[in-house]
Amino acid sequence: MSGREEEWMIRKDRVSVAEREAEDQRQKGLEIGAKKHAETLKIVEEEAKKKFEENKHTLAALEALDMAKENEEEEYKAWKVRELKRSRRTERIEKRKFCLCLLSKVKYFNAWFQVSTTCLRVISRIEKEKPT
Description:
The protein has a domain at about 15-100. It is built from two helices and no strands. It has helices at about 5-10, 15-130. The model has no long low-confidence stretch (mean pLDDT about 80).
């Protein structure tokens, strides 16, 4: 083969301009598709994060409600214990007041009884000494 024939010979591995443009278009389409896919993934990830945060806040609120209910129950129990103690203390105070009142009356009665007994003794002595 002469040099001239080699110049006009078409190589099989060469790509035509149209094929090259088609390949470039396909590559651009793939790049655009990859970018859209990446953006979609970002959007989905952001939405998932938002829902996760909302669920986290909702869960925290529910836990707070549960804790509030538990706190209410604990507060009620504590209130009940305080009221029972107060009631018992008031009852003890009332009993003490009643006992003191009774004791003072008994002391008064004892004093009266002693006075009256003394008076009776004196009267009986007087009557014994009285000439008949």
